[in-house]
Amino acid sequence: MADNDASDGEAGRPLNILIVDDSSVMRAMIKRVAALSAVPIGEIYEASDGQAALQVLEAHPIDAVFTDINMPIMNGTELLKEIGRQDRWKHVLRVIISTDGSIARRQEVSGLDVRHYVEKPFRPEVMRDVLSEITSGAHAH
Amino acid sequence: MSSQKSRRVPTPTEHRQALCDALVDVSEHSFFAVAEVGDEPRFAELVSNPVPALMPWEEGAADAGVAPAPVSWLVVHVRFTGAWGGALVMTLPRPLAGELLASFLGRFGPEDLSEDELLDGTGELANMTCGDWLTRTCERRRFDLQPPAVEVMPEGWSPLEASSAWQVFAAINDRPVALRLDFHEAV
């Protein structure tokens, strides 16, 4: 089990992030945007569905999860629920990146401690701003 | 009253407009491309006269010849359920898919893409367009998307063979794109 001693928004410390999306191209794009941002990024891990993401969380210290919603095997909502059930992952910051920006979906995830909800399509600067906010330690309203 | 308002079903015209807006939104924000909605005659013109890979003044154009090579096409199906069920179908020429994906990934050009990346990214283009359209039209209703299915059409296939099947004719970077919505039930 990974020693997840990461703290919420410790300024300047590189973030270990996990990108969860069934599209390898989308993961590559997010990874590229994260790397090009001015935010200090540590390791970037990838998973193609929620189940694979849980395996990564078990094996590595993750500070933030960026997850899609609609994925096979285990979707993003189920993943976030599972993260929420585990005390050892309570520090993990949660960001949704999804084409589904509907009110119904936002309401569905409202109780899952989602820090940001990013709708696709998004401009790269949106991701940069999300990463900056996470590392600054500010709390979203 | 509020439940009635939230359950209002968009008209076909509203669905079409939302789909057009979604295509432009996705093209511009994620793929840094210029998208314009047009009509069938313009679409047919773009299909029949594809943009050459090289402009006449570019290096290698003389060797490439005057007539552009036959264009191969991709057709993507994105199935959706929830508020309503059906599929978004999108078709675009393979060279355009390569251009868009290269831009999306910050690659030098389409030649830097693998076949898997090209097909995955094309599916993602349609997936985002479908999700954007549904977000605009579903209001308070939930929807779910299936992973996109991308088909490489056989050589010689043209979207003009069944042009009446398409509902939206557009151009992205002056290359033709067509879309339609296939609902399981009439909406």
Strand order of the largest sheet of chain A: 2-1-3-4-5
Q: In percent, how much strand structure appears in the residues of chain A?
A: 15-25%
- Tell me the distance between the termini of chain A: 32 Å
Q: What percentage of the residues of chain B does DSSP assign to strands (E)?
A: 15-25%
Helix content of chain B: 25-40%
- Helix count, DSSP H or I runs of 4 or more residues of chain B: 6
Instruction: Please report the two chains with the greatest interface, counting residues with C-beta closer than 8 angstroms to the partner's C-beta.
Output: A-B, 24 and 32 residues
Task: Label this structure with key terms.
heterodimer, A: 141 residues, alpha/beta, five-stranded parallel β-sheet, 37% helix, disordered N terminus, B: 187 residues, alpha+beta, 40% helix
Verbal overview:
The complex is a heterodimer of chains A (141) and B (187). Chain A is α/β, with parallel strands linked by helices and 141 residues long. Helices cover 37% and strands 19% of the residues of chain A. Chain A has five helices and five strands; from the N terminus they run βαβαβαβαβα. Chain A has helices at residues 24-36, 50-59, 76-85, 103-108, 124-136, and strands spanning 15-20, 41-47, 64-67, 93-98, 116-119. In chain A, strands 2-1-3-4-5 form a five-stranded parallel β-sheet, sandwiched between helices. Chain A is globular and about 30 Å long. Chain B is of the alpha+beta class. Chain B is built from six helices and seven strands; from the N terminus they run ααβααββααββββ. Chain B has helices at 2-6, 12-31, 40-48, 61-64, 94-105, 115-138; strands at 35-37, 73-82, 86-93, 143-145, 149-152, 168-172, 175-183. In chain B, α2 packs across α6. Chain B starts with a helix and ends with a strand. The chains are: A alpha/beta (141), B alpha+beta (187). The A-B interface holds A 22-26, 28-29, 32, 70, 72, 98-105, 108, 119-123 and B 25-26, 29-31, 101, 104-106, 116-117, 120-121, 123-124, 127-128, 130-132, 134-135, 138-147.
